[in-house]
């Protein structure tokens, strides 16, 4: 199913936020203990990632691929091959 690159970028951004949730929980505890020790790279990661993802994917046509889990990688490749080669 076709999807805009902007939609994909937004989904990836939320996925990345989830993947670093444990790290961010530790960082918030650190900031609680030392509120004057901010890290601008960490504090702005969500915005910077979202901008970069939009820059990379925003103007592309993407596709949603639904598959069973666990997935057969060869079968998945065969299913998306026509989209990649088009």
Question: What labels would you give this structure?
Answer:
5 helices; 2 strands
Please describe the biggest sheet, giving its number of strands, its sense, and whether it closes into a barrel.
2 strands, antiparallel
* Overall residue-averaged pLDDT value: 94
Helix content: 55-70%
Cα radius of gyration in angstroms: 18 Å
Gross morphology: elongated
Structural class: mainly alpha
Number of domains: 1
Task: Output the strand order for the largest sheet.
Answer: 1-2
List the helices and strands and how they pair.
Blueprint: E1 2-4, H1 5-19, H2 21-33, H3 40-43, H4 45-57, E2 61-63, H5 73-85
Give structural notes:
- This protein is mainly alpha-helical and 86 residues long.
- The chain has one domain (2-85).
- Helix content is 67%, strand content 7%.
- It has five helices and two strands, in the order βααααβα.
- It has helices spanning 5-19, 21-33, 40-43, 45-57, 73-85; strands spanning 2-4, 61-63.
- The longest helix has 15 residues, at 5-19.
- It is elongated, with a radius of gyration of 18 Å.
- The model has no long low-confidence stretch (mean pLDDT 94).
């Amino acid at each position: 199913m076709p999807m805009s690159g902007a939609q994909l970028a937004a989904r990836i951004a939320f996925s990345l936020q989830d993947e670093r949730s444990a790290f961010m929980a530790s960082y918030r505890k650190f900031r609680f203990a030392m509120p004057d020790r901010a890290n601008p790279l960490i504090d702005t990661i969500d915005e910077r990632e979202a901008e970069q993802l939009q820059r990379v994917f925003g103007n592309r046509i993407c596709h949603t691929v639904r598959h069973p889990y666990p997935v057969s990688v060869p079968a998945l490749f065969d299913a998306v091959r026509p989209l990649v080669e088009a």
